[in-house]
Amino acid sequence: MKNFKKISIIVVLMLMLSTLFTSCEKDKNINDSNENNQSEFILEQGASIQRDFIGVIKNQANVPISNATVNIGPKIGLTDAKGVFVIKGANVKELFAYIEVSKTGYLKGLKTIVPIQGVNNVSIILLTENMQALPLNNQIQLLNGVKVTFNGGFEDATGNVYTGAVNYSMNYIDPASPTIANEMPGMLLGKTTLDDFEMLQTYGMLHVNLTDATGNSLQIATGGSAEIRMPISSTLSGTAPATIPLWSFDEDTGYWVEEGSATKIGNEYVGAVSHFS
């Protein structure tokens, strides 16, 4: 049985089969070592400790979201009418705390922080999940010009070819948004194909979620792909490089993973991906 891994592409994702397509470039290495790998990074997270958290969960209209479930390790909290949650004594790492927020009708909120002593204050903005039918031409587009074209078919979680109606939701996170830190998953930390860890700069993030008519997750069929065209923000166009790596967010680890690349064509970045989760 095929396991849909929880990842999002940088931009990207949040449920078991959603994805955030994110275009980022490397900024700098997080330390001086050229031999970083995942196990070393885990060690660098520090020892297990307990920390207290208080936070507020809102939507993009700045309206508090009540009854959202917040997970920090095994600890679970629930937001009140003002969107506020309190979790005390959560088990985290000295340098790495991973927070997950879920609420029906919204994409999962995922945030990574370096915890401090005392109370950690957290703000997370949940993006609305707007499911709609995939057009017959297999092309979807947002008002800002972001476009995704599916080339090939779709398959279900078992890897079987799916030929029924396809629903999708698509959300864009603007790199120029003043609230991007509260909207995006994790933080701008990514693991390269060489197992180095880098601090990243984003040129835009995109989440795409595919389901069948009853809400079961779908994926791009094996051998298929999706072309993604993302306009370059006017605030970044002057410094945008000719080619940038693409990154997907791994929900299991809480950081980004390098996957593929995008090329600058005119005022857009154009790239192709083989999956959205």
What does this structure look like?
- This protein has 277 residues and is mostly beta strands.
- The strands form four sheets. Strands 1, 2, 10, 11, 12, 15, 16, 17, 19, 20, 21 and 22 form a twelve-stranded mixed beta sheet that branches. Strands 5-4-7-8 form a four-stranded antiparallel beta sheet, with no helix packed on it.
- A hairpin with a 6-residue loop joins β7 and β8.
- It is globular, with a radius of gyration of 18 Å.
- The two termini are 15 Å apart.
Order of helices and strands: EEHEEEEEEEEEEEEEHEEEEEEE
Assembly level: single chain
Note the gap between the termini. 15 Å
Mean pLDDT: 85
Return Rg in Å: 18 Å
The number of E-state strands comes to: 22
- Helix and strand composition category: mainly beta
Question: Which parts are unreliable, with pLDDT below 50 for 5 consecutive residues or more?
Answer: 1-19, 28-39
- What fraction strand? over 45%
How many helical elements?
2
Shape: globular
Helical amount: under 10%
Query: Can you summarize the main beta sheet?
Result: 12 strands, mixed
